[in-house]
């Protein structure tokens, strides 16, 4: 970690985007090493005490949970732990081909303070209200910018898509209560849409169906891409030569119910620069997903969540050695009996259930970036896969990478359980009311999400 970024370097880093936990910056300076890279810096919820980098990277129970992954439990800071998690856990699950392990660089407090000031005007207001740069961090994560190809010949273009696929299967766990049986036939994504709409996080319900995207059928994948394009929310973005031209900056909210003038212009620009008509472009994306099989391992990793949160939550209480708050509030002796089996599991079995659950949670929340560029002279010599697009009679090469493979905190289990209940209850009530909104659930999910970034 030889590199140190100081206050005077901040001007070279420009805002690229952000999620709930990190702000991502692109490099615009003259260092050849940094060109084509992005810097991912951590945030902390507004008003919370800032994290002290290097201290309490993993909680006592997390150390127990990840004890077999030595590099992870010995990590000296959060950044290093995240990098080790990618390298020693997620890379094995998803295959190293689609993973960028990245590296970390030292950053001064002044660099972070200066970056925070510089990016302020580009950040969505609701992200500013929720969290700020964690200026107490002394390192940040440096990775390749996967929305561009390094060394793209002058005059050529590069177009990239970012997809946040979310959970691609329906759970079938025997521990899902009869009252929640709807989970076995309606995707979590769809049910969550109703709650998000009610909470003002989205402006309309997306018709995107993750089961289509993960189906392995070319037609269904195309259908999924089309619906993502129609309602991108925080699940779909397009970058042209590294700049976002379609989809929301900062993720989450999508305030516009109709496509903005800027976005329409952006799509026209895309067509002008690349010669690709919109259906052809969406077909290209679908073809890359289909022929690469890139989502196969992601789905298998998501399916490590075998018991569903309704089963895994009991194993969580075994690990933290506290009375199970779910069983405590249950009046149904039949259910109590069923869950007592989970509470009789030995510690190592409970630990495995939780490890698998959290790995699956990462796989349900990560994003996929696929970038394309036309092939010079018609054939790819670079080692990238290529696709021939009949509709435009063009050859493209592409690369695919997963981003945001962060480890989920064990402490989030109670939140996962509560959010799951809330989503299902709200969805069923919305349906009972013929789709009209139900006022019985009012507590903001966003507020609760934020507290887990501490
Ligand atoms: O719980 P979910 O499914 O809403 O996922 C959260 C995401 O919401 P969304 O994709 O919009 O539904 C959420 O995304 P947004 O903030 O809504 O853009 C985060 O990705 C969050 O992860 P983390 O807290 O940053 O580690 C995600 O939390 P995890 O569940 O992955 O821990
Ligand atoms: N390696 C990369 N190359 C190009 N763009 C990137 C890269 N990593 C992140 N980004 C951009 O920055 C945005 C935010 O990054 P990221 O998803 O890692 O943040 P996060 O806070 O961890 O998200 P979440 O809300 O899912 O927790 C992404 O949506 C993407 O547009
Ligand atoms: Zn229990």
Automatic annotation (TrEMBL):
Q: Name one GO molecular function term.
A: inositol-1,3,4,5,6-pentakisphosphate 2-kinase activity
**Catalytically driven reaction(s):** 1D-myo-inositol 1,3,4,5,6-pentakisphosphate + ATP = 1D-myo-inositol hexakisphosphate + ADP + H(+)
Q: What is one process in the GO biological process aspect for this record?
A: inositol phosphate biosynthetic process
Query: Which domain of life does the protein's organism represent?
Result: Eukaryota
Gene Ontology CC terms = nucleus
Tell me any Pfam family this protein matches.
Ins_P5_2-kin
EC class of the enzyme, as a word: transferase
Q: Which UniProt keywords apply?
A: ATP-binding, Kinase, Nucleotide-binding, Transferase
EC nos: 2.7.1.158
| UniProt remark on domains | The EXKPK motif is conserved in inositol-pentakisphosphate 2-kinases of both family 1 and 2.
Q: What PANTHER family does its record include?
A: INOSITOL POLYPHOSPHATE KINASE 1 (PTHR14456), INOSITOL-PENTAKISPHOSPHATE 2-KINASE (PTHR14456:SF2)
Question: What is its biological role?
Answer: Phosphorylates Ins(1,3,4,5,6)P5 at position 2 to form Ins(1,2,3,4,5,6)P6 (InsP6 or phytate).
Q: What is this protein called?
A: Inositol-pentakisphosphate 2-kinase
Which species is the source of this protein? Elaeis guineensis var. tenera (Oil palm)
Classification from the root reads: Eukaryota, Viridiplantae, Streptophyta, Embryophyta, Tracheophyta
């Amino acid at each position: 970690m030889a590199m140190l970024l100081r206050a005077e370097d901040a001007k070279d880093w420009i805002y690229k985007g952000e999620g709930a936990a990190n702000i991502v910056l692109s490099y615009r300076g003259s260092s050849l090493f940094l060109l084509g890279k992005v810097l991912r810096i951590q945030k902390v919820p507004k008003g919370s005490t800032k994290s002290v980098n290097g201290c309490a990277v993993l909680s006592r129970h997390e150390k127990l949970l990840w004890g077999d992954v030595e590099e992870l439990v010995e990590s000296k800071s959060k950044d290093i732990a995240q990098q080790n998690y990618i390298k020693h856990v997620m890379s094995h699950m998803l295959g190293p081909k689609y993973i960028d392990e990245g590296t970390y660089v030292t950053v001064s407090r002044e660099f972070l303070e200066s970056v925070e000031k510089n990016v302020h005007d580009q950040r969505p207001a609701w992200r500013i209200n929720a969290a700020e740069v964690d200026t107490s961090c002394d390192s940040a994560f440096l990775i390749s910018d996967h929305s561009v190809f390094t060394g793209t010949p002058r005059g050529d273009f590069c177009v990239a898509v970012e997809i946040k696929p979310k959970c691609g299967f329906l759970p079938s766990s025997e521990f899902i209560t009869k009252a929640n049986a709807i989970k076995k036939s309606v995707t979590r994504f769809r049910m969550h849409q109703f709650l998000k709409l009610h909470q003002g996080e989205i402006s309309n319900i997306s018709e995107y169906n993750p089961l289509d995207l993960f189906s392995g059928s070319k037609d269904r994948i195309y259908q999924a891409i089309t619906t993502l394009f129609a309602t991108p929310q925080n699940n779909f973005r397009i970058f042209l030569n590294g700049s976002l031209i379609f989809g929301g900056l900062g993720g989450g909210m999508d305030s516009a119910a109709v496509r903005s003038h800027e976005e329409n212009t952006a799509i026209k620009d895309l067509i002008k620069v690349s010669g690709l008509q919109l259906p052809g472009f969406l077909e290209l994306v679908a073809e890359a997903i289909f022929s690469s099989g890139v989502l196969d391992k992601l789905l298998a990793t998501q399916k490590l969540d075998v018991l569903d949160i309704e089963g895994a939550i009991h194993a969580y209480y075994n690990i933290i050695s506290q009375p199970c708050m779910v069983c405590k509030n249950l009046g149904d002796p039949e259910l109590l009996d069923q869950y007592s089996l989970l509470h009789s599991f030995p510690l190592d079995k409970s630990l495995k259930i939780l490890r698998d659950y959290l790995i699956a949670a990462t796989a349900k929340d990560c994003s996929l970036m696929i970038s394309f560029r036309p092939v010079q002279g018609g054939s790819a010599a670079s080692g990238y896969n290529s696709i021939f697009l009949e509709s435009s009679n063009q050859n493209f090469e592409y690369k695919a990478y997963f981003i945001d493979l962060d480890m989920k905190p064990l402490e989030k289990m109670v939140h996962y359980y509560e959010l799951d209940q809330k989503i299902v209850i709200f969805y069923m009530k919305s349906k009972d009311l013929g789709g009209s909104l139900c006022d019985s659930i009012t507590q903001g999910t966003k507020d609760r999400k934020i507290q887990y970034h501490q």
